[in-house]
Design a protein that fits this description.
The chain has 91 residues and is mainly alpha-helical. The protein has a single domain, classed as Orthogonal Bundle (434 Repressor (Amino-terminal Domain)), CATH 1.10.260.40. It is 59% helix and 0% strand. The protein is built from six helices and no strands. Helix 2 packs across helix 3. The radius of gyration is 18 Å and the shape is elongated. The N and C termini lie far apart (50 Å).
Length: 91
């Protein structure tokens, strides 16, 4: 899961493996291994990738489908109001 998500985020930003590895300060080979899930990044690398793309580590590893913590917060907070209708309260 994390490999696919890293690859998709990289492609969304139109970055090559080489460009992203340089931005993150990791080797091109290591990043390729992470995308193929041949190796798993350590916590610090997961954190660097998440920070670079402004997503949560939970998103990267597949525990959440929402990319950012703010979106998760908003969805959770607003969920009770999903069936709320203003017109029912204007009478």
């Amino acid at each position: 899961m994390y490999g696919t998500r890293i690859r998709n985020l990289r492609k969304e930003k139109k970055l090559t493996l080489k460009q992203l590895s340089k931005e993150l300060g990791i080797s091109f080979t290591a990043l390729g291994n992470y995308e193929r899930e041949d190796r798993q990044p350590n916590f610090e690398t997961f954190e660097a990738i998440a920070n670079y793309f402004d997503v949560s580590i939970d998103y990267l590893v597949g525990r959440r489908d929402v990319k950012t913590l703010m979106n998760t917060f908003l969805i959770t907070t607003l969920k009770p109001f999903r069936n709320y209708s203003v017109k029912n309260h204007l009478k």
